[in-house]
Amino acid sequence: ALAFIANPSLVLLDEPTTGLDAAAKRKLWDVIRAARDAGLTIILTSHR
User: Fold this and answer.
1) Would you list the domain boundaries of the chain?
2) pLDDT of residue 1
3) Nearest CA among 47, 44, 48, 19 for reference residue 32
4) Can you give the pLDDT at residue 24?
5) What is the pLDDT of residues 1-48, one digit of tens each?
6) Is 39 left (phi over 0), alpha (psi -120 to 50) or beta?
């Protein structure tokens, strides 16, 4: 959440869903998609 406060043009996320339950993962992906759709560049790592 802190990464989005300063309205950056790029966000790096390292395994952002690690430790989250299924509902929290869905909400986080919704936030990530909305940020992407708003023009934010997002680079993330995932083992999925």
Assistant:
1) 2-45
2) 66
3) 44
4) 98
5) 677 778 888 999 999 999 999 999 999 999 999 999 999 999 999 987
6) left
Residue type, 47: H
Q: What is the reported pLDDT for 14?
A: 95
Place of tokens 């560049």: 41
State residue 40 phi and psi, 5-degree precision: -75, 135
Strands 41-45 and 10-14: parallel
Other CB atoms within a 10 A radius of the CB of residue 16 amount to 19
- Token pair 């395994």: residue: 15
- Any idea which residue has 């790096």 for tokens? 12
Question: Which two three-digit tokens encode residue 17?
Answer: 């869903």
d(CA 32, CA 30): 5
